[in-house]
Amino acid sequence: MKKKFYKSVIERLLLESKVDVSMSTLVICGDEFDKAVFKDLGFSNVTISNLDQRNTPDYYSPYKWMLEDAENLSFPDNEFDLVVVHAGLHHCRSPHKALLEMYRVARKTVLVFETRDNFLVRLGNKVGLVSDYEVEAVVGNNNQSGGVRNTEIPNFIYRFREREVFKTIQSFAPEFKHEIKYFYGLNMPLERLRVHKNKALVCCAFLSYPFVKLLTWLFPKQSNLFSFSISKPDKAKDHWPWISLNAGSPTLNVGWCENRFLTENMEKQ
Question: How far apart, in whole angstroms, are the C-alpha atoms of residue 98 and residue 70?
Answer without folding.
Answer: 5
